[in-house]
Structures are given as C-alpha cells and as structure tokens.
Amino acid sequence: MESCFLILIYTFLLTFCAALSFAKDFDFFYFVLQWPGSYCDTRRSCCYPRSGKPAADFGIHGLWPNYNDGSWPSNCDPDSPFDASAIKNLTSEMKRNWPTLACPSSDGFQFWEHEWEKHGTCSESVLSQYQYFQTALGLKQKANLLQILQDAGIEPDGGFYSEEAINDAIKGGIGYPPGIDCNVDEGGNRQLYQIYLCVDTSASDFIECPKLPRGRCGNRIEFPAF
Question: Which residue among the candidates 117, 119, 124, 222 is catalytic per the annotation?
C-alpha cells in the first residue's frame, strides 16, 4: 500500500513539473511593427496580399515572448495548431493591420499560422489564440507609431533621419526607447524596417526593454514612401 502511495505521489510530481515546464514563464514580449515600404524596397521586392495593397502604415510582424537574456521560446505546443475559425471575426481587421507582403500573394492565413505556432503557443498561459491576435491588434492601435513619427516631423517621404531622432520620437510617444532595425534598399541605403517595442507579460502595457535587439542602422536612415 505504501509503495502504491509513493508511486502516486511520484506520478503527481512528474505531471506537475511537466505542466510547469510547458507553462515556462517568459519575461516580456517583443511587439514588432514593420514598415511596408522598406519590406518592398529591396532586391527581393514584395507581393501585395490578395486583398490589395495595404495602407501606408506600419503593419504587425508579431508578438513574441522573450527572455531577459535575449533568448526566446518557440513552437511550445504542437497540440495547439492554428485554427482560422477561432479568429473569424478578426480576419478583416488583421488583413488591414497584420498583412503579409511575402511572395507569392496570399490571404495572410499562412503567415498568421506561423506566428501563432512559433510564438503564440509560448504565451498560452496568458493568451488564448483569439486573445493573442486580438491583443496584438490592440497594441498596434495603442502605439499609433506612424502618427508618433509624423508628429516629430519624421515622414515616410524618402528622406533621411538620424537614429537618435527616430529613437527620441518613439520614446516620447511610447514612454520607452524602442529597438530600431534597418534593412538595405537597392541603392545600398539603410532604411527604417522594423520597430521593436517591449510589452509586459500580461501583454497590456509597454515597458522598458530588458534587452534591445542589435540594430543594423547607422545614423543615416531612410524612411521610404509606400
């Protein structure tokens, strides 16, 4: 009887530890916004979604759980596949705010599937699939990144701006300095590509980034039109 009891206790502890391991705490989210003009203005170019050319605004790339040391979890739950029907009433808003510019043209579902299965499943202790996408849409509206830059005189007009000016504008609007990522156009110019904002583990508030991604910008950054 005692041995059976010990086996039960051992089994419970293993199950409990496995559950803790699956729901491994992460330290913060990166909320990543992408400028479509920079995505398209490269040798690789781009393809507009089947719904047409997106608006000239930052689009969501993803909401990514991260650790303070710079590492991140990924593909945390193979038993939680993407379910398009679960976000049916978000689809039109996602096409506007979370478009894909990858070729060939698509409706976005493959992109969203990738984001959920690689990143979203690692935040299931906080966000359901529906909440994951809904929360990202809300964060984009809350950030209003393009307006913040335009209010600081930084326009997507093909002009060049300093990294310091872009950083100061976003810090003034969000409250915290961002991570700024650049890519390269066909002329070899560094251009504003992605902005990393950090969000707390409840995915409700912007926070000081525990670790900023390494940028590739220099101090002369083009902000191309789209």
Answer: 119
